[in-house]
C-alpha cells in the first residue's frame, strides 16, 4: 500500500508531458496554416511607382515615324537621295574641270574613233591584219585632217592682202551707203565712231597684249590636246574591244549584263551621229561654198571649211558660220551681195534642218530640239566650244543607254516573276478556236 502513491505520481507526470507535447504539435500545425506576409519592400530609385486606381488613364505616345505624314516621309527620303546625287555630280564636275583638257581630248578621240572605226572594220574584212588596218586608217585620217588645216591657213595667208584691200573698199562703200541711206547718218557721226574705236584700241593695249599671251597659252594647250587625242584615237582603234572588256570588269556583277548590252547600242548611236553630222556638214559646206564662190566673195574655200567645222556645233555653229560669210560679203562686195549670201545660207540651213538631218540621221539619233538647245548651252557654259561640240552626242548616247536599261529592267522583272496560276493562268492561256475556224497564228516572240 505504501508504493501506490509513488506509482500514481509517476503516471500523472507522464500524462502531463504527453499533454505538453500535444500542445506544441497543435501550435506548429496552426503556424503552418497561417499565410506569411512579407514586409513592404522599399521602391527602387529608378522605377516609376504604379499610379493609384483613381488616376485617369493616359494614352501612350505614338511612334515618331508613324506621327509624320506619309507624303512628308516620301519627300524626305527622296530629298536626301537627291542631295547625295547632287553632291556626287558636283564632285564629278569639279574633277572634270580640273582635268578638262584630258577629258575633252579623250572625248574628241571617241568621236574620231567612231568616224574611223568602220574603215578599220572594212579593211580587216578585206584581209589586212588588225595592226596594219589601224595604222593605215589612222595615218590616212590624220593626214587628211592636217592637209585640210594647212589648206585653210594657206588660203587665208595668200588672200590676206587682197582681203584687207577689199575690206577697206567695202568700209568706204558702206560709209557712202550709210550717208545716202534714210537713217540720217552724218559723216561726223561716222568719224566719231571710228575715233572711239581707235581710242579704245589705244587705251586697251595692255589688255590686248595679255590676250595675245593668253592666246599663246591656249595654242600650247590646243597642241597638247591634239597630240593626246591622236594617241587616244590610235589605241581605241587598235584595242577598243579589250578596253571595253576591262571597263566592264569595274562594273558590279549584278549590273554587268545590262551595261554590256547598253555599250554596243551606245556606240552605234555615237557612230551614226558622227557619220551623219559629217555628211550634213560636208553638204552644207559644198552648197554654201559654191554660192559664195559664184557671188565672187573672196576666200570662198576657207569660208566653206569654216562652215564645215562649225556644223559640228548644233544650232549655234550654223548661225556663227553663216554670219561670218555674210559679214565678209558685206565688207567686200556690198549690201546686195551680202543679202544674196544670206539667202543662200538660210536656204541651205532650211534644207539641212527639214530634209538632210531627218533623212541621214533618221531614228538612230533622236533628240528633242529643246534638249539640244539646253545641252549646247550647258556644254558651252561648262567647257566652252569643246563642251558645246560634245554636248549633243553625249545626250544622244545617254538617251539610248537609259532607254535600253529601262527595257532591260522590265524584261528582267518579267523573267523573274512567278509563273501564272489559277484564274490568271486561265486568262493568259490560249483558248481553242471554235469548230470550223482556223486557229489564230501565234505572234512572234
Summarize the structure in words.
This protein has about 450 residues and is mainly α. It is built from 14 helices and no strands. It has a domain at about 260-415. The longest helix has about 50 residues, at about 370-415. Residues about 435-445 have low confidence and may be disordered.
List the keywords.
14 helices, 445 residues, 0% strand, mainly alpha, elongated
Structural class: mainly alpha
Tally the beta strands: 0
Radius of gyration, whole Å: 46 Å
Euclidean distance between termini CA atoms: 135 Å
Instruction: Calculate the mean pLDDT score and round it.
Output: 75
Q: Helix segment count?
A: 14
For the sheet with most strands, the description reads:
none
H and E order: HHHHHHHHHHHHHH
Tell me, briefly, the overall form: elongated
Helix content: over 70%
How large is the share of residues in beta strands?
A: under 5%
- Residue stretches low in confidence (pLDDT < 50, at least 5 long) are 436-445
For this structure, the quaternary state is single chain
Summarize the structure.
The protein has 445 residues and is mainly alpha-helical.
Secondary-structure map:
Blueprint: H1 4-33, H2 64-67, H3 70-98, H4 100-125, H5 130-158, H6 160-180, H7 187-203, H8 205-249, H9 253-294, H10 300-310, H11 316-333, H12 335-360, H13 369-416, H14 423-428
Helix pairs in contact: 4-5, 4-8, 4-9, 4-13, 5-8, 6-11, 9-10, 9-12, 9-13, 10-11, 11-12
